[in-house]
Amino acid sequence: MKQWSFEKFSGRIPRGDTKIGINRSGLIRLGVMFCKKTGVKKYTYCLQYFDKINNALALKFTNKKEDGIVTVTTDGEAAALSSKSFFKANNLDLDKISGRYEWTKENIPGVGDVFIVELSKNEKIS
User: Fold this and answer.
1) Could you tell me the domains of the chain?
2) 1 FRET partner, CA 20 to 30 A, in 10, 24, 57, 70?
């Protein structure tokens, strides 16, 4: 006999995609689908790294409080990182880099698992 694995429809349609958004005020938005796919809402903090040569940022989520962390702010099923000082410290023009980005997850030696965003590959938010 065939086995079924039905899931009850909750009446809500998940919004968005898995892209990471950066807005002009320096907020990094982690949408509902990104949070669901990656499980980052189980973390309290995020470390941010910048690669000047490749113009990329990396996000490492953690529950360990240490220097340079930002708090993961949850907003319903989505999350956000207040990163204005990170962008300012790395001389990044928010008007130029604001937009939505695809990301990759990689394990960087000495750092660990991170989500990498190449800032030259944004999709402008109109």
Assistant:
1) 20-123 (2.40.330)
2) 10
